[in-house]
Amino acid sequence: MHKVKRLGKLAAFLVLLVFGIAYFFPFFWMVSTALKPDTQLFIYPPRMLPDPPKWSNFYDAVTAIPFGRYTMNSLTIAALATVGALISCPLAGYGLARLRWKGRDLLMIVTLAVLMIPNQVTMVPLFIVFSKVKLVGTFAPLIIPMFFGVPYYIFLMRQFFKQLPKSLEDAARIDGCGEFRVYWSIMLPLCQPCLLTIGMFQFVASWNDFLGPLIYLNDEFRYTLQIGLQQYKQSTNIQWTQLMAAATLVALPVIVLYFTVQRAFVEGITFGGVKG
Fold first, then answer.
1. How many CA atoms lie within 13 A of 26 on its CB side?
2. pLDDT in single tens digits along all 276 residues of the chain
3. Which of 207, 171, 174, 208 is nearest to 190 (CA)?
4. Are 98 and 161 a contacting pair, CB within 8 Å?
5. Would you say 126 and 86 are in contact if contact means Cβ atoms under 8 Å apart?
6. Cα→Cα distances 144→82, 126, 159, Å
7. CATH tag, 66-268
8. For position 82, what pLDDT does the model report?
9. What is the domain partition of the chain in residue ranges?
10. What angle, 0 to 180 degrees and rounded to 10, lies between the N-to-C axes of helices 151-162 and 67-97?
11. Whole-model pTM?
C-alpha cells in the first residue's frame, strides 16, 4: 500500500516537473537570447547558454527607446486601474452578497451576463463615449472603467463575502457598528486573499494591455511599454537580442509581483471566526 502511494506521488511529481519545464522554457530561452552575442543567434544546433554572456544588450535595450518614460506610463496606468478595481469591486460584491434589497438577484444575473460579452463588442461604443468627453489621448479611458467595477472581480468578491460567517456581522451590529463600518472594519480585512488575487489580476492585465493603449493613446510621450516594444519590433533593422532584453525587463515586474502576492496569499488564506 505504501509503495503504491509512493509511486503515485512520484508519478504526480514527474508530471508536474514536465509541465513546469515546459512552461519555464520559453522564459529561459528569452533570457538566454537576451544575453547572446549576435553571432550566436541563428547558429545550428542552437546554443542553450550564451558564451560569453553579453550584458550590454540590456543597456542597449533601455537606451534604444524611452524605456524609463514608457515604464512610468505603464506603471501609472496599472497602479491606478488596480486601485479602481480594489475600490469598486469589493463594494459591489458586498452589496450583492450581504445586503438585502429589491432587484439584487436580477442585477447579479445581469452582471454574470456581462461576463459573456467580449471586449471587442464594447470597444467601439466606449471609444465613442470617451471621444465625446474629450478623453481620447489620455490615460483616463484605461483607468476610469475600473472604478465602475469589473464583472468577473465583482463575482469573485460576492462569492468570497457569501462564505463569511454571519455571526461576525451580527456581533459587529450588536456592538453598534453601522453598515459601512461592518464592511470596512470587519468584512473587508477578512477578504485579503481575494483582494490580493484581484489586485494581481488587474495589475497584470493593465501592465500587459496592448490593444487599449493602441486605441486611446495617440501621443508618443504617453506610450506604454507594450506599444514601445511593438514599435521597436517594427523597426527596419530588428536587434533581436535587445528586443529579448527589453521583453525580459518588461516581464520581470510581473514575475516579482506574482511571487510577492503568492506568499501574502498563502499567509492570509486562513481567517478566524468567533470563538465561544
1. 5
2. 677 778 878 888 899 889 988 988 988 989 998 888 888 888 888 888 888 888 888 998 888 888 899 999 999 999 999 999 999 999 999 999 888 888 888 988 998 888 888 888 888 999 999 999 999 999 999 999 999 989 999 998 998 888 888 888 888 888 888 888 888 888 888 888 889 888 988 999 999 999 999 999 988 899 999 998 887 777 657 788 888 898 899 998 888 888 887 766 665 444 433 343
3. 171
4. yes
5. no
6. 11, 11, 25
7. 1.10.3720.10
8. 95
9. 2-54, 66-268
10. 50
11. 0.86
Residues in the chain: 276
pLDDT single digits (tens) 67-80: 899 999 999 999 99
Contact at 8 Å (CB) between 183 and 94? yes
C-alpha cell at 245: 532584453
Pseudo-torsion of CA 166, 114, 205, 155, nearest 10°?
Answer: 10
Please give the C-alpha separations between residue 268 and each of 12, 195, 242, 263, in angstroms, as whole numbers.
27, 11, 40, 9
**How many beta carbons lie within 10 A of that of residue 184, not counting itself?**
14
CA separation for the pair 112, 116 (Å, rounded): 7
User: What b/e readout covers 112-128, taking b as 16+ CB neighbours within 10 angstroms?
Assistant: eeeeeeeeeeeeeeeee
Asked if 254 contacts 208 with a C-beta cutoff of 8 angstroms, the reply is yes
Helix%, strand%, coil% for the chain, nearest 5: 75, 0, 25
Residue 251 Cα distances to 31, 162, 202, angstroms: 11, 35, 15
* C-alpha pair distances (Å), 74 with each of 59, 186, 203: 20, 34, 10
Per-residue cell: 218: 495617440
* Extended strands (E) in 54-146: none
Q: Supply 17's cell numbers.
A: 516537473
Question: C-alpha grid cell for residue 143?
Answer: 483607468
